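Rather than argue in generalities, we reproduce a single protein record, letters for residues, whole numbers for local backbone shapes, just as it appears below:
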Amino acid sequence: MRIVLGVGGGIAAYKVASLLRLFTEAGHHVTVIPTEASTRFVGTATWEALSGNPVSNSVFDDVHQVNHVRLGHEADLIVVAPATADLLAKAATGQAGDLLTNTLLMARGPVLFAPAMHTEMWQHAATRANVETLRSRGAAVLEPATGRLTGADSGPGRLPEPEVIYDAAMALVQGQSDFQLPLAGRIVTISAGGTREPLDPVRFLGNRSSGKQGVALAVAARNAGATVRLLAAHMDVPPPAGVEVVPVETALQLREAALAAAADSDVVIMSAAVADFRPTEISDTKIKKRDDHADPVITLVRNPDILRELVELRNLKGAGAGEKQQLIVGFAAETGDSQGDVLAYGEAKLHRKGCDLLVVNHVGTDKVFGQDHNSVVILARSGSGPQEATGTKTEVSAAIISRIGLELNSVSPRA
């Protein structure tokens, strides 16, 4: 596929190098057209090296090829990232002052803009009007991510992660002109891995969680357009790119991080395997085997119920006028016994915790923990029927994130 990649003059231009790499590694032929301002952030040599093609931003280079007409006509897709407020304004008003804006005027295929700018600029009435104009003409304009911006301020205006832009571009080319990123503009906090409760400087109480499901959820949420914060307990896999990582070890540390992160989160997904108990006392030195063969006695105390506390805090805070209430998703790793099966325990836990969705796993020595596949049932407090999701943890995560998107938009899932 022939792709024109326009690069706007914003500091986020450096991220576009990763987007270019995604396109070229997928086998696409990419022509990069940076604006003059963007070359102050990333030079043309970088774009030429990564694309394998010559780079220019002038209509007077290679005039015999009539590039200002040819590139737009031949492109199967045009992606502009970062799409600054200035570039959106020029595109909306049909200006043609350089090679990129000329190419946009000549475009005959799909066009995707990935905005990046400060929050005030994104929310300004002029920018919003320009975005609506471009969308009304058939262009796709992503919502920017929310998070830390160039300075000390935070808010909507971050460039979506390269993987998100890539997925949106591929969806657009495949004819999904009305595609939506279900979590665009949302802040999602996800806990992952297993907590460890120290007994002494060497030993701890832990569990078999590998963190694979939590990491897969973080990737799925990121690819759905969310700004993702990953509260990472012990994990056997590395955290994904493009998410904020907050390392934790114990249940108490996770509680502190979760309560802080929930303050500005639209969605909280508690997928970490949190220890139910911790030692009452932690030895400052390694617990030794005694010659008198006396066995140590370890007294445990119950850890706080983080999920329930998050729900109570959410309910106490409430939602402002016109706002959707924060969505909270819990996970239940259950084993059946003579008193009930896994689903019965899941239903009871959903009622007890009060979260909006509960993802129930049937766990065991060779099930779920550390495995690449999973089978879950999603239970909803709203009363809609159980939803099953089976497959790789990537596929299961996609189903969970899709369900969260439906819940946020108050759409009942299909049976």
